[in-house]
Amino acid sequence: MLYSEYLVRSAEDVCHFCNPRDRKFIENEGAFLTYGIAPYHKHHLLVIPKRHVQSFMELARDEAEQIWDIIRKASAILLELGYESYTVVVREGKNDAKSMKHLHYHIIPEEHIGDLDHEGNKRVVMSEKEIQAVSQDIQKAMQKLTFTGL
Ligand SMILES: [Zn+2]
């Protein structure tokens, strides 16, 4: 079954991360470690927060620490399996039908993220003018934030 078909079927079902059917390798109070059923790589691991949240921003600090603990253990497992590198990707659930609606973390060995941009084009180094525009956007966003509670 294609992952896209799985997601359509899952949307009509209960949350698979709140009601896990897949093997749990490790767990603590806040999260558990399982595998990617539609993996980018053979040993693609997933860390799933136990509480159903869509965004990283919804996590309490203690939940984030529990998730971090499982991510570190997942990373150690991949290194023990012989991989030299891995990539951690935070996947929020606010992305319509592109992924599960429950925040999760991919821990992917030997992933080569970075050759293409988000539109599938080869990445290019920004010009000084583009860097200035991006910097201004970030500065404007920071001026509106107080970072209280973060
Ligand atoms: Zn859920």
Please provide a written account of the structure.
This protein is of the alpha+beta class. It has a single domain (3-114), classed as HIT family, subunit A (2-Layer Sandwich). The chain contains 3 helices and 5 strands; from the N terminus they run H-E-E-E-H-E-E-H. The chain has helices at 3-11, 61-80, 128-144; strands spanning 26-27, 31-35, 45-49, 86-91, 104-109. It has a 5-stranded antiparallel sheet with strand order 1-2-3-5-4, covered by helices on one side. Strand 1 and strand 2 (31-35) form a beta hairpin. The chain is globular. The structure holds zinc ion. Residues 15, 17-18, 52, 102 line the site of zinc ion.
CATH class assignment: Alpha Beta
Number of alpha- plus pi-helical segments: 3
Ligand set? zinc ion
Helix content: 25-40%
Number of domains: 1
Outline the biggest β-sheet. Answer: 5 strands, antiparallel
The poorly predicted ranges are none
> Which fold name corresponds to the CATH topology?
HIT family, subunit A
Assess the beta-strand content as a share of residues: 15-25%
What average pLDDT do the residues reach? 87
Distance between the termini: 40 Å
* Strand arrangement in the largest pleated sheet: 1-2-3-5-4
Q: Identify the CATH homologous superfamily.
A: HIT-like
Quickly give the structural class. Answer: alpha+beta
Radius of gyration: 18 Å
Strand-and-helix sequence, N→C?
HEEEHEEH
* DSSP summary, beta strand count: 5
